[in-house]
Design a protein that fits this description.
There is one protein chain. The protein is mainly α and 243 residues long. Helix content is 68%, strand content 2%. Helix 6 packs across helix 10.
Amino acid sequence: MNKKGVVICKNCEVTTLGKYCNNCGQRTSIDEVSFKETFQDLVNGLFSINAPFFLTMKMLLINPGKLLREFLKGKRKIYYKPVSFFILTTILYLIVRSLINYDPMTTAGVKVDGEILAEAGKYMVKNINNIMFVFVFTLGVFLKIFFYKKNTLAEFIAIAFYMIGVYTIIGTFFMFYLKFNNPNYKEVPVILFLIYMIYAITSFFRSKSIVVVFKTCLITLFAFIFYILFGFLFSFLIVWIKS
């Protein structure tokens, strides 16, 4: 770098100015690969301006409608991508569940009759990070069915990834209460998610009409029921094939 700050980008070899290349966006201060650089890239990828998780989380909590509208209209750089958001929240859930040794099948007092059914339940809980994808798509499909004139199915699926990410965060925090306080309120995260869905969808459509609220309640209910049915059926088939 010369006195004027002009450098040649090591990625695309274009003369540029500043901390980032004007052509490809790579940092101009790239040197040898180091542990510091690798860790910094990880942090930047999760929490920096390139992928602002905390900004996205803040907007999802205080003004989800604005985030969803802006993301669908093309503001993709300033918000954490919906699929990445969903994956990160799922990873955090799995880490916390492992650290506190939380087992929904026993801690919540769930009793299942039949060896195969019990094993299917355990399989579903163990592989919840994969089966949660079903919840995303059932929610997206029912959003499209009830609001079919508003947005495309792909757009509703993107919204669903954000919504289920929030549901996962609710479940992650409430897991501590179920584990260490009272395991008999396992339905509370679902109720909180329903309230959040009403808040988010009415904010997204800028309408608090009773019709929108009622549709949102039905969407959440049907999406959750079909998610449980499909998830358990899939788990049952896997256990049955292996047995």
